[in-house]
TrEMBL record:
Domain of life: Bacteria
Keyword hit for NADP: no
Annotated ranges, domain Methyltransferase: 53-146
InterPro entries in UniProt: Methyltransf_25, SAM-dependent_MTases_sf
Protein name: Methyltransferase
Organism (species): Lentzea aerocolonigenes
One Gene Ontology term from the biological process aspect of the record: methylation
Length: 248
């Protein structure tokens, strides 16, 4: 599946953000979408009121939370016009300094060195075929001394079944495969790209960024409503956080 088909799949899937507009607005108003493992790393960076670029910004709730935690402003970049329109409307209604650009990642149409912090994740990297090109684009966007922060699904996650009795490995998936067909969300047979944790780290290092932190976490960043998969109960990695810095 190429970028056009993926984009069409996301335009359709993002209608959820429009249907749930009010619910998400109240969520953004009353709670933070940033979880503890994110805040621990982000708070020291947000203390200096950075300008943030959020790649693959989706419904934009993280952008509202980033501003609430100290970001001066956030530019969200996403190739779904449905998602960016809903995110812009929500930020405007809450009076939060977020601006959205409809564009594909990598190849972001923002100037070199425009940001102090690139924030991304929560289901973003699996849509990118070439992480070396992505990491180069991130490095280009960062000012010297700026940071890349990623909170993402762990590359092992495609292997876990959602069985509730005990965790199992899907026999049709492999950690070292290049891709698999998504059979849950956003559906339509969309192809998700796979990269190992080592490959993700190597892409970041290859772009000249300094690695400051990598950690693996048992909590997933997202749960299917009403499901309590055994793979989410603490035994297995479900997310990772990564912080890297562009040399001054
Ligand atoms: C699972 S969502 C996560 C978004 C965001 N982190 C959130 O929590 O709402 C993935 C997002 O990536 C966007 N996306 C996927 N591939 C993209 C690409 N190549 N360029 C720009 N946006 C892309 C989709 O439109 C979607 O909004």
């Amino acid at each position: 599946m190429n970028r056009v088909e993926n984009r069409n799949a996301w335009e359709a899937a993002s209608k959820k953000h429009v249907h749930e507009y009010r619910e998400l607005l109240e969520q953004a108003r009353n709670s933070s979408s940033l979880v503890a493992c994110e805040l621990e790393l982000l708070r020291p960076l947000l203390a200096s009121r950075p300008v943030v670029v959020h790649l693959q910004s989706g419904h934009g709730l993280d952008d509202i939370a980033l501003v609430a935690e100290g970001a001066r402003s956030v530019v969200g970049v996403d190739f779904s016009s449905v998602a960016t329109l809903a995110a812009q409307r929500r930020a405007d209604e809450l009076g939060v300094d977020c601006r959205y650009v409809v564009a594909a990642v990598p190849g972001v149409p923002l100037r070199d060195g425009c940001t102090d912090l690139v924030y991304t994740g929560k289901g973003a990297l699996i849509w990118l075929r070439d992480l070396e090109v992505w990491a180069a684009d991130v490095a280009r966007l960062l000012r010297p001394g700026g940071h890349l922060f990623v909170h993402e699904g762990h590359p092992m996650v495609p292997l876990w079944t959602w069985d509730e009795d005990e965790p199992r490995i899907r026999p049709d998936r492999g950690y070292f495969e290049r891709s698999h067909v998504n059979d849950t969300f956003p559906g339509n047979g969309a192809v998700e790209w796979q990269a190992t944790l080592a490959e993700i780290i190597t892409a970041v290092l290859g772009a000249g960024l300094e690695l400051r932190h990598v950690a693996e976490h048992p909590e997933p960043f997202w749960k299917w409503d009403g499901l309590d998969a055994a793979a989410w109960r603490g035994q297995l990695p479900n997310t990772f956080t990564l912080l890297a810095r562009k040399r001054s």
